[in-house]
């Protein structure tokens, strides 16, 4: 479906940054192995260095290398119930997750969006994972449409990928931390967790 998939792959392999649709809001991402790409995201957004990026993929198994194992019962249950979907799980990171993604923290957020365009991107890129945040300047509203994402990112991201009719729903993901088996809700979003 995506017309310029080889160009997208090339941009990412060279430390570039792309904007894309997800099931929640528009995202801005690079390869997690690219410190250059991560730096570029922080520059584009004027993002505070203490705010980490999260990791997203089309399948949970691509993300498991980045978190400490074994997964807790609570994490496994939430993954079964809400992935793919509008839940970001914050867990203890593994040594495979670079500190430049987590702002020096020992935790990392992971998510599997439920959107076929995002899925197709991930299935065709090196490593199948994106280090990501929302496609807007810091403290500005998240982009909910292609037009808004394009307006925000047209001279900043290397590519703004069309949504091909698979629109974002417009509500951010819920962010939940799981530490051992304790839950901490950092942000209530599209999924209500108490």
Characterization of the model:
With 194 residues, the protein is of the alpha/beta class. Helices cover 28% and strands 22% of the residues. The chain is built from seven helices and nine strands, in the order αββαβααβαβαβαβββ. The protein has helices spanning 5-13, 35-45, 60-63, 73-82, 99-102, 116-123, 146-153, and strands at residues 18-20, 27-30, 54-57, 87-92, 107-111, 129-134, 159-160, 174-179, 182-187. The longest helix is centred in the first third of the chain and has 11 residues, at 35-45. It is globular and about 45 Å long. The termini are far apart. The relative contact order is 0.26. The model has no long low-confidence stretch (mean pLDDT 96).
Précis, in short:
The chain is α/β, with parallel strands linked by helices and 194 residues long. Helix content is 28%, strand content 22%.
Structure characteristics:
7 helices; 9-stranded mixed sheet; alpha/beta; 194 residues
Numbering strands along the chain, what is their spatial order in the largest sheet?
Answer: 7-1-2-6-3-5-4-8-9
* Low-pLDDT stretches: none
Q: What is the radius of gyration?
A: 15 Å
Q: Which geometry do the CA atoms define? A: globular
Kindly state the number of beta strands.
9
| Percent of residues in helices | 25-40%
- Give the count of helical stretches: 7
Distance between the termini: 38 Å
Main beta-sheet strand count, sense and barrel state: 9 strands, mixed
Give the overall pLDDT as a whole number. Answer: 96
What is the H/E order? HEEHEHHEHEHEHEEE
């Amino acid at each position: 479906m995506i017309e310029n998939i080889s160009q997208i792959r090339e941009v990412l392999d060279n430390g570039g940054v792309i904007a894309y649709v997800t099931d929640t809001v528009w995202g801005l991402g690079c390869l997690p192995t690219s410190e250059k790409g991560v730096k570029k995201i922080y520059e584009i957004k004027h993002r505070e260095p203490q705010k980490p990026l999260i990791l997203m993929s089309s399948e949970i198994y691509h993300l498991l290398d980045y978190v400490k194992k074994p997964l807790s019962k609570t994490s496994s249950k939430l993954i079964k119930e809400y992935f793919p979907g509008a839940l970001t799980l914050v867990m203890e990171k593994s040594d495979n997750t670079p500190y430049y993604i987590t702002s020096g923290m020992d935790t990392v957020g992971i998510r599997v969006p439920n959107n076929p365009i995002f899925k197709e991107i991930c299935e065709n890129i090196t490593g199948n994972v994106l280090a990501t945040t929302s496609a807007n300047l810091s403290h500005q509203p998240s982009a909910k449409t292609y037009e808004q994402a394009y307006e925000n990112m047209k001279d900043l991201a290397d590519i703004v990928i069309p949504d091909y009719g698979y629109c974002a729903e417009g509500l951010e993901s819920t962010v939940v931390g799981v530490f051992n088996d304790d839950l901490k809700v950092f942000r209530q979003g599209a999924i209500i967790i108490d």
